[in-house]
Write a structure and sequence with these properties.
Length: 79
């Protein structure tokens, strides 16, 4: 039970950007990431990332049939 409560608290703190907490995934500002890269790094599931892009919350560039997200934009979005 303690493990579940601790995990829940950590997830809530991560989602709400509580001061003093650091991001587990630190994107390089000069690198571009695919939606799959972000999902594999635990940002969110691909469907949620696509929703953020389509709503304009997360900046991305359409390259071919997929989106590429700049590391600086990811950092700005998460912080």
């Amino acid at each position: 039970m303690t493990y579940i409560c601790t995990l829940y608290i950590v997830l809530c703190q991560t989602q709400h950007n509580i001061p003093g907490k650091t991001m587990a995934f630190k994107p390089d500002p000069d690198t571009f990431y695919t939606i799959e890269d972000l999902a594999n790094n635990g940002i969110a599931v691909p469907t949620t990332i696509r929703k953020w892009i389509k709503s304009g919350q997360l900046k991305a560039t359409l390259v071919g049939r997929g989106y590429m997200v700049c590391g600086a934009d990811i950092r700005d979005f998460l912080l």
